[in-house]
Design a protein that fits this description.
Blueprint lengths: L6 H11 L4 H14 L15 H13 L5 E5 L7 H18 L2 E5 L12 E5 L2 E6 L1 H8 L2 E7 L2 H12 L4 E5 L2 E6 L2 H7 L8 E7 L3 H9 L6
Parallel strand pairs: 1-2
Antiparallel strand pairs: 3-4, 5-7, 5-8, 6-7
Helix pairs in contact: 1-2, 2-3, 3-4, 5-8
Pfam families: ABC_tran, DrrA1-3_C
Protein name: ABC transporter
Keywords: ATP-binding, Nucleotide-binding, Transport
């Protein structure tokens, strides 16, 4: 994008690059600007745009020539949470309106939840691929996150009592246990824990847990 040009001027230029028929250029420019909600800002120079507006304009540019496939390479990296949320609203609207197949690369695995299929890569190789639900179902069970007044003592007590009945790991001040059934585990074990519990959370596996299970490390490492 040429930052000295307006959004509309940039899109007019790229219409020529993409060989969009002349009679279709203006309607298509207005159409893609409407999709990304930049109609009112189309005559502003790009140098005046925020980071989120620039990302949306880049998506609009990629739509000019009616693509069948759109590649989005970490579209929300560096954006604040509010801008990220709004950008995903535009992307989902785009998917519904244009019927485009989209390939998304992201380090934010919560964003991958909206995908039809997710491929997890490690060291440049795809190690598993399936729908988000199917990937999480492979892990099964529940994840219990708890903190106590003395985690080291609690951890020793947990390891002595469960004897292979759960996967246990510690991250920071939280003990994580992966169990087949949280209801059965809590009723049979947590009540007998001698160390007072200060925090308790029960959840289903996420794609972050899937990534860790398949690679043995967090995505940021």
């Amino acid at each position: 994008m040429d930052e000295k040009l307006t959004a509309k001027e940039n899109l007019q230029l790229h219409c020529r690059f993409y060989k969009v028929p002349k009679q279709k250029r203006e309607p298509r420019i207005q159409e893609v600007l409407e999709i990304v909600d930049l109609v009112d800002e189309q005559n502003q120079r790009i140098e005046e745009y925020s980071g989120g507006m620039k990302r949306r304009l880049e998506i609009a540019r990629g739509l000019l020539h009616y693509p069948k496939v759109l590649f989005l390479d970490e579209p929300t990296v560096g954006l604040d949470p509010n801008t990220r949320a709004h950008l995903w609203e535009y992307i989902l609207k785009l998917k519904e309106k244009e019927g485009i197949t989209m390939f998304l690369t992201t380090h934010y695995l919560d964003e991958a939840e909206i995908s039809d299929r997710v491929a997890i890569m490690d060291q440049g190789e795809i190690i598993t691929i399936d729908s988000p639900t199917a990937l999480k179902d492979q892990l099964g069970g529940d994840i219990i996150e708890l903190s106590t007044e003395d985690n080291q003592t609690a951890l020793r007590e947990i390891e002595e009592k469960i004897q292979g009945g759960a996967e246990v790991k510690v991250e920071g001040d939280t003990i994580h246990l992966k169990v087949a059934s949280s209801d059965a585990f809590i009723s049979s074990f947590i009540k007998t824990l001698e160390i007072p519990i200060t925090k308790l959370n029960i959840r289903k596996p996420t794609l972050n847990d899937v990534f860790l299970a398949f690679t043995g490390r967090k995505i940021k490492e």
